[in-house]
Design a protein that fits this description.
This protein has helices at 22-28, 84-91, 101-114, 120-127, 138-150; strands spanning 2-7, 10-15, 47-50, 53-56, 69-71. The chain has a five-stranded mixed sheet, covered by helices on one side. It folds into two domains: 2-75, Beta-grasp domain (Ubiquitin-like (UB roll), Roll); 84-150, [2Fe-2S]-binding domain (DNA polymerase, domain 1, Orthogonal Bundle), CATH 1.10.150. The chain is globular and about 45 Å long. It contains five helices and five strands, in the order ββαβββαααα.
Length: 153
């Protein structure tokens, strides 16, 4: 079947099977920043924004994305114009192996869109579903708080 959706602001017509999960379809379409991790919704590696909300794409059937707005890490910024979260993650040393980084950044973006100047506790709660084995989370939290100071809202 075919569904129409918007990915990173571009209209897309996707061929999907009824049991395809969004993670697999996005990766098949070339969005490699959506990482496969646990396939159970517990690691956060596959987090995307669906209509601005952080969701685990491994838990969503692709057919549910019909008519929806999807943002992947590829839509967050560009090499020439990185999003403040991308800059602050690099500056804070919050990127080690990088596997969890796309999901963590998108979870942080959803938080900052909802709460422009969150507390440390709110940042920790927003990142709670994103497992990271390298950074220990401290630098990620610092990066999100730094981005909240840069973003004007």
């Amino acid at each position: 079947m075919k569904i129409t959706t918007a990915i990173n602001g571009q209209k897309k017509v996707l061929s999907v099977e009824p049991n395809d999960v969004l993670l697999d379809v996005l990766r098949r379409e070339g969005y490699k920043g959506v990482k496969e991790g646990c396939r159970k919704g517990t690691c956060g590696a596959c987090v995307i924004l669906l209509n601005g909300k952080a969701v685990n794409s491994c838990l969503i059937l692709a057919v549910r994305a019909a008519g929806q707005q999807i943002t992947t890490i590829e839509g967050l910024g560009t090499p020439d114009a990185p999003h403040p979260l991308q800059r602050t993650f690099v500056d804070a040393g919050a990127i080690q192996c990088g596997y969890c980084t796309p999901g963590a950044m998108l979870s942080a973006k959803a938080l900052l869109d909802e709460i422009p100047h969150p507390s440390e506790a709110q940042v920790r709660e927003a990142l709670d579903g994103n497992l990271c084995r390298c950074t220990g989370y401290v630098k990620q939290v610092q990066a999100v708080l730094a981005a909240s100071r840069i973003l004007k809202r």
